[in-house]
Amino acid sequence: MLTDQEFLRYSRQLMLPEFGEAAQQILKQSRVLVVGVGGLGCASAAALCAAGVGLLRLVDADKVELSNLQRQLLFRSQDIGRAKVAVAADALSQLNPHCRAEVLPEAFSAANAAALLAGIDWVLDGTDNFVSRVALSRACQQHKVNLLSAAVIGLQGQLMLWPHRQHSEPSYHQLFQDLTDQSGNCASLGVLAPLPALIGHWQATVLLQQLLQPSAAAALWQLDAHHWQLKKFPLPAAVTT
């Protein structure tokens, strides 16, 4: 049951013909793991919090640095040196007190995967390196937890949907096993300031849709923000390794 304050807070969302109180209740009961509270994670977590997702479990071992402030919009200059997850949780509590943020200042790994994924409906991957993405992909596939992975670099963005709860295949680590961290990331190749927020909000939008109307189809989207071209690629139903 939504409170009067929640009806007022989410009123513009509740007005949508495809939405309503039942949909808002689903969001309120949903539990999302956000791995990586950088440019992508800041944007997606803020959007999900504002929309009314009930619990966000934030996982990141890093502290706020000056170079983060160009694109990681939950952080301020006075936050430099503090744990990213703690700063993000403070900001999210101010944005929407109905959303609970769990703070885990650690890196995702095979060793802690089971504990971090416990009770989770969806995982948002906002990491910036291949090793972390592979570990997350393997864990989500093993534990049959749905995964929505995003990446940005330069003027390019990418979003990948992996509905592991419906199907065990395919997986990120199987389709992209030839990739390495030598391919580069934001730290080595740069990124335009607004792009992580754009892709992070896109990631959150797709997740909200999936929470309300789950899809069994894995998919890959690529955005070229330089020419404003968006492409969608269906992924195979199974992969042999």
Automatic annotation (TrEMBL):
Residues 10-235 form the THIF-type NAD/FAD binding fold domain. Coiled coil: none annotated. It comes from the Bacteria. Keywords: Membrane, Transmembrane, Transmembrane helix. The keyword Transmembrane helix applies. The chain crosses the membrane at residues 32-56. Pfam families: ThiF. InterPro entries: ThiF/MoeB/HesA, ThiF_NAD_FAD-bd, Ubiquitin-activating_enz. This is HesA/MoeB/ThiF family protein.
